[in-house]
């Protein structure tokens, strides 16, 4: 009984394990087959001929159909379906892309426009055929390895014996399972020159070249695995900007859409954009009123597709495996393959020449020496072959290989008419020409490198002389968006509700751009720099403005414990967004903060009992210290009143006196929460009309600090006794 139960349990457990493992094995095997198929047979090109399978099948079909005339693209697609199992749509799209590169396929009809993005006409209306370059450099059945097509009815090439660097010349993109490739097109003439440099063991540089033209910064190309920046070519005609060349990877439709989007989002200001593109690109842009064309040009590079960054990825199929390579590696391999293909062709040609020499020499010996007369009395084939062989043995020294049975059969098939009309002199002349070709081939095989260079130069002369570079190579700095951003953000400050933001309304908004920061200073000297919010609570502030790292502040603060006053100048040039800092030590209070560090003030100081004296202070006479450093004591006596006097003139040629005598002390950054209501009341007292007029004049003097809020000048009227 126990044995039966044990067997049942084992069967159940084995069933669970078996079903689970078989499912996993099925998924693993199927997924791996799918992944490897997509990588090898669809998305990733082969390094040797630079083609994806669908492109190779299209070119092979065109070669099979080639008769010198144009073929309907629909017929070509149908013929290619003998080799490609994925339908006509993928074949048609691949053929149009390959034809628009204009190297291997000559087109007739509307194949679309790479500048505007217009699609091609239907396949039944357009025609194509192979170019002379394709016929000369891609096909040779004698050195091509074939494999059965997907249905076994036809043979297709595994790799075409390409004699030029097709992969880098054409460029390609593809997405497979777990990997992708993005190879940029290069100039054919430059590629061939680089191959000559490789054969001569010389250095070379290789950079992409795009049919759209444009401008390119390839300083970070990194031999094909870095990045490049491409820009449209924009020229200025009076106030108009005209785009004459577009970057690779876009078209005029996408480019105009990106410009309109930037205008809609208030990144740029344009009044009109017109597309006059025909055979050449021409997009006319008119800036908005008051908007400089030079600034608009920089903004186009910063906010639109007029400037793009491209990251190539040279993933290819090499020896039946996906491999990451560089441009130099690919060129070296293509050059090695070129030598291999040319050597094979020379060897095959040499074999053919030797066979022709052998056949013509045998025929001449057979006819000239009347060896055919020896077989007149032979009754059997064996005797015939024996007599002919015996007759030829005397002339073995004239041949380059032994006579075979097949050779004798060829001799016996010579017609009587040919024997009677045999021209010995013409045959000797043919043999001499064949011998010259044999010697030439042998020399070429011995000097295969020189022969390869000669072949490349011949390709350049016939097909690449007109291949001028279309993309200009320059080095340009990335456009700083903060320098070209529009001041189109209005930041309001609700002083009563203590709110700030772009959605807060106020009578005197601060005009900013999207990259600006806001400086918020509280009455206890704590400050922080924040990004522009839509609406946010900020608390009671004594100073609120757009942050400018070049603004020099004048500060007077008092120590609550001792009652003494200190002054300093400072620049806030370093910060972490939303982090709180302090302009004065703990338990101190800001009395004056001004963006005019050349301000002069009159201070009433306690002199004797119930008496005061007036002293003048010029903030320029106080040292420029860091924001966290302690200020310099103004006077040992208590200051009762501070009144704005005037603005001192700056003498930039003279250094500030005694500036080096002061040492900066570290301040403990802790928020002062001990400000009482009396302080807030004192900070809110109104200004006299005289001081208001002085402040308005000072606002004009400080025009470079747009939107700076000088409310803290009101503190100059505050009295120490709370008047």
How would you summarize this macromolecular structure in one to three sentences?
With 723 residues, this protein is an alpha+beta fold.
How would you describe the overall organization of this protein?
- This protein is of the alpha+beta class.
- The chain has 18 helices and 33 strands.
- The strands form 10 sheets. Strands 25, 26, 28, 31 and 32 form a 5-stranded mixed β-sheet that branches.
- Helix 3 packs across helix 4.
- The N terminus and C terminus are likely disordered.
Number of strands: 33
Q: N- to C-terminal separation?
A: 107 Å
Strand content: 15-25%
Low-confidence stretches: 1-9, 11-18, 653-723
Radius of gyration: 44 Å
Mean pLDDT: 83
Structural class by SSE content: alpha+beta
The outline comes out as elongated
Task: Report the sheet with the most strands, covering strand number, pairing sense and barrel closure.
Answer: 5 strands, mixed
Tally of separate helices: 18
How much helicity do the residues have? 25-40%
What layout of secondary structure does this protein have?
Layout: H1 2-43, H2 53-65, E1 71-72, H3 73-80, H4 88-100, E2 105-108, E3 127-130, H5 132-138, E4 146-148, E5 155-157, H6 166-170, E6 172-175, E7 180-183, H7 188-199, E8 215-217, E9 228-231, E10 233-237, E11 240-245, H8 252-264, E12 270-275, E13 283-287, H9 293-303, E14 307-310, E15 315-318, E16 321-324, H10 327-368, H11 381-393, H12 405-412, H13 416-420, H14 424-446, H15 448-464, E17 472-473, H16 481-484, E18 489-494, E19 499-501, E20 510-512, E21 517-521, E22 526-531, E23 536-537, E24 543-546, E25 552-559, E26 565-571, E27 580-582, E28 588-594, E29 599-606, E30 612-618, E31 624-625, E32 632-635, E33 639-647, H17 677-683, H18 689-701
Parallel strand pairs: 8-17, 26-31
Antiparallel strand pairs: 1-3, 2-3, 4-5, 6-7, 8-9, 9-14, 10-11, 11-13, 12-13, 15-16, 18-19, 18-20, 19-23, 21-22, 21-24, 22-27, 25-26, 25-28, 26-32, 29-30, 29-33
Helix pairs in contact: 2-3, 3-4, 7-10, 7-15, 10-14
